[in-house]
Structures are given as structure tokens and as C-alpha cells.
Amino acid sequence: MSCSDQPLGRRRVLGTATGLVTAALLPSTPAGAAAAAFTNPVIWQDFADIDIIRVGATYYASASTMHYSPGAPVLRSYDLVNWEIAGHSVPVLDFGTKYDLNGARGYVRGIWASSLAYRPSNATFYWLGQIDFARTYIYTATAAEGPWSRLTTISTPYYDAGLLVDTDDTLYVAYGNTTISVAQLSPDGRNQVRTQQVFTTPSSVGTLEGARFYKINGQYYIFLTRPANGQYILKSSSGPFGPYTMRQVLLDLRGPIDGGGVPHQGGLVQTQSGAWYYMAFVDAYPGGRVPALAPVTWTADGWPVVQLVNGAWGTSYPTPALPAPPRQVTPMTGVDTFDGTSLKPRWEWNHNPDNTKWSLGNGLTLRTATVTDDLYWARNTLTHRIQGPTSTATVLLDHSAMRDGDRAGLALLRDSSAWIGLKRDGGTTRLVMVNGLTMDGSWNTTGTGTEAASTPVSGSRVWLRASADIRPGAARPGTFSYSTDGTTFVRLGPAFSMGNDWRFFMGYRFALFNHATQALGGSVRVPRFELSTP
User: What is the pLDDT of residues 434-456, one digit of tens each?
Assistant: First the structure.
């Protein structure tokens, strides 16, 4: 992925187009599809810049998380269609104080396109990614759910990297933007042995990035994306350092989501039965970038071909022919009562949290961690991805320990945000809906919010609800409501327009927050959170 300050980055308008250079067609209704088929997107949540691998009979994928902590979620599946969040490869964004909201902010930085690999020789998972164009970090774990720990830091920033564990156990990294290079790492993976430019993208193609590195049937392949409408592949028969020849995989291909973009920037994976699949993401704002899956075949001379339905990436394909899963994966929707000793991996903080200011036990307690009138500066804002195409988050909030000046509630969080929640001032607590929280293109706050509606509230508990429509192609409404009994909900405030511009990269999220505007010391408790779909 590219950031807006990169010279050859993702500046093209995201949209749907027609036309394909290399593809094969499937019938509009594949034989047997009615009985066993999956529908794209396979995950309608924001998981972008996907890397995908198989270890035995289990599939794993990694994704970008930018400024959210912990970072680099690891997804797990047994059938390529049903996925759960197993854990995070980067436990904390300890890359500078800006990721702590301490004097600076890390919005649209942090965990970009990175790589996930498994090394059979030591039965270890590897995550590799560059941070802030400065250096590369490698984390390892013996289980996908963790614990993960930092193995090393390398001074070369491997931009949009793909990590390859070769058949002789050598570690290679493909990386770069337009100019593509390959690095070889030391046997222990801690240092760079050499790096060499292996390919320069022709000007007729433009930008290539998002490298994924493979060795297939003795050939070396670097899978590259042209943001945000194409996918290309480089192939070498002479080793990992080339020379490479290039072929187009897809360009301006109609995607599987109405109003969404072209599937791109993902990875290839082979099933245990020998079939190949490509998992890409589809730009689908305001919700973000969501994974879509398609089968792949290979030409006689060794090039991948995405299988199409009526000239497009299919909305449906036959379900991969795989053994029955050993268990059902954990749903990404449903109820969380914040039991246990740690947050479930569905949750990520906006920047690193102050771990002294939150706790679990009889629900989630959020103590105020920041004195600010700006939610974008407030620490310990806890976020949850929105489920598409539409979903609703409902929280039960105990506000009895709030103090004067405190603000707590449930937000639709992005560079333009709104929330429903509680304001306590002068000993009185009011229920409010606030919109007009905005950032500019450099992610500086331009609006701290305007109170659009309010109502008195009594008692110590209230149910807050946010409903979000994240179908792509246009700005979509988010609405807020509340209840005093958990059954009857009353709308509060006008509909909030959720923008669909791509430049913030991450999609809208539901967010739980509690911050002070006067002094620390107050708290709220959340006994229950539910994410539901119609």
C-alpha cells in the first residue's frame, strides 16, 4: 500500500471498470454451486493488504492495521471461506511516542502492507514489516495466536514486503515501489546478507508495489499490485535475484461488490488438495478494504490465471473441496461480556493504550486516560470493525462513576466521526449525539464536534446503539439511538454521513471511549457489547 506522501503511490480513483487482459471464464452458475458455494466478500470487514499462507490443513492471513494496537491481526481458517481472528503479530506499536498519542499522532502510519510466513525448519511463524520508511521489524511466534515477540530490527525499510522461506530454508524478501528489490537474510533471520534490485516497472504500467514472494515448481514469482486496479506477476527461472519477466494478471476487472473497486493486493495459496486460490481485497469504503476469494489456474508455461464469472471476479464460486474443519471458527459478530483476563482479538485500540487506565472483570472498565476536548487525541479508545453490508453495535454503559467534564460513549470513528454518549458537567449527566469531528488531509483535527441533539438521562446505566451502512460507492448513513431498558430504543440526532474517501485507508469502526476535559479520575463500565446484523 502507499501513503499520500509517496511519489508514485495510490492516487488513482477507486472504482469499478471493465476489461481484462489475462483471464479464464467460468459459467455464470458453476456446476454444483447451488449446493456448495461461497459468496464474496468472504469477510465483510476491513482486512487489507492480505498475505495468506497454509500450514498443514490450516490457513492464515495477515492484514494492515495502521495506527491501531495491537497490530497486524492473524486470521485463521480451515476452508478459506470462514475466518476468525487468532491474534496479532505486533503486540504493541513501540515505534515512537506518537503511537502513544504523546505529543504526536500516528494516524495513517504504523502497520502497512506486511508479510506473514511459516518456517518449517523451526516450526515458527514470521511477521515482517517496515515502519515509517525507517526500518524493518521481524516478529516470531510458535503459534499463530501468540505470544509474538520481536526477533530483530533491520535498518533497510522493506517497503510492502513479501517474505519467502525457500525450499533450502533460506529467507528472502521482495520489496519496493516501482523499483523492486530482493534481499537475502542471514540464516537466523536477524540480519540482511545482501540486497539487489531485480526489476524496474515499465512506465507504461506505472506503479507496482505490494510484493508477495513465492517459489512454485522451481520458479520464483513476485506477485505485485498496481494500485488500485491491477495485479501483475514477475517470474524467474534463474533464482530469486532474477532476471524476471512480467505478465499482467488482471487490470480494471469488475469486482464482486456493487460500488466497490477492483480486487487487488493479496496473495496466492495452494490447498492441501492442490487447488490454487487468490485472496485479494476490494476497496469498499466507507467500510474499508474487504477480502474476496477466487480460484486460480496455471498456464502450461507457468503463469497464474484468475477464474472469472461472466467476465468479472465472481460474487460466488464453488466452495473449495477441503476436509471438514476440526471445529467451527469463532464468529466475528455476536456478544462480548469482556470475560477472561485479556481482550478478545476482535478488539484494537486507537494507538497504544495506557494499560493502567483500563481493566476487565465484571465487564470492561475504562478510566479516563487523557484530558482533552478532542477525541482524536484521547487515549484508550477501543475499536471494533464494522460488519458489512450493514450492522449495529449495542453497548450497555454504566456511567455512575463519571466526573465533571468527562465524555463517554460509542462512536463511528474515522477522519470524520460522530458519537452518542454522555456528557457530565456541573453535576448533571446528559445524553448527547455529537457530529462534526473532522481531520484534514494531514490528519490534524479540524473539528472537535458539535452537539446535534441531547436529552436528560437518569439512573446509572444506559444502552447506546450505533447502526452503520457500509455498502460502498457513496457516502452512507450512520444512526444513533439509546434505551433505558435495553429493549425500546429511541433515535437521537440526525443521520451521520459516513464518507467514502479512501485516503484515510482504514474504514469506519465502532469505538468505545471515555476521556476527560477537566481532570482525570472518572470511569465508566461496559458490561456488554453486541455486534449484530439484520
Answer: 999 999 999 999 999 999 999 99
Q: DSSP label at 357?
A: G
Instruction: Quote the CA–CA distance of 155 and 217 in Å, as a whole number.
Output: 33
| Buried b / exposed e along 138-166 (16+ C-beta atoms within 10 A) | bbbbeebebebeebbebebbbbbbbbbbe
441 touches 424 (CB < 8 A): no
Q: Under the phi-then-psi rule, with left for phi > 0, alpha for psi from -120 to 50, and beta for the rest, what region is 415?
A: alpha
DSSP output for 116-145: EEEEGGGTEEEEEEEETTTEEEEEEESSTT
Q: Please name the residue that has the C-alpha cell 482524536.
A: 376
Does a cis peptide bond (omega within 30 degrees of 0) precede residue 494?
no
CA gap 377, 266 in Å, rounded = 32
* Adjacent-strand bridge partners of 150: 139
| pLDDT tens figures, 246-270 | 999 999 999 999 999 999 999 999 9
For 93-137, the pLDDT digits (tens) are: 999 999 999 999 999 999 999 999 999 999 999 999 999 999 999
List, in order, residues 6 or more apart from 204 with CB less than 8 Å away.
Answer: none
Strand pairing of 523-532 and 364-367? antiparallel
- 404's CB contacts (< 8 A; 6+ apart) are 424, 425, 426, 427, 518
CA distance 167 to 146: 25
Which residues face 248 on adjacent strands?
232
Task: Tell me if 366 sits within 8 A of 512, measured CB to CB.
Answer: yes
Q: In terms of pLDDT, which residue wins out, 67 or 8?
A: 67
Backbone φ, ψ for residue 160 (5° rounding): 45, 60
C-alpha closest to that of 9 among 185, 359, 265: 265
Residues 53 and 277: their CA atoms lie apart, in Å, by: 11
For 487-491, the CB contacts below 8 A with 24+ separation are: 489/463, 489/465
Dump pLDDT digits (tens) for 362-406: 999 999 999 999 999 999 999 999 999 999 999 999 999 999 999
Tell me if the pTM is above 0.90: yes
d(CA 62, CA 74): 5
Q: What angle do CA 52, 505, 114 make, to 5 degrees?
A: 30
* 3-state SS track over 430-442: EEEEEEEEEECCC
Strands 476-483 and 461-469: what pairing? antiparallel
Q: Are 495 and 295 in contact (CB under 8 A)?
A: no
Dihedral of the alpha carbons of 425, 430, 435, 437, in degrees to the nearest 10:
30
Where do we find the cell 465502532? 510
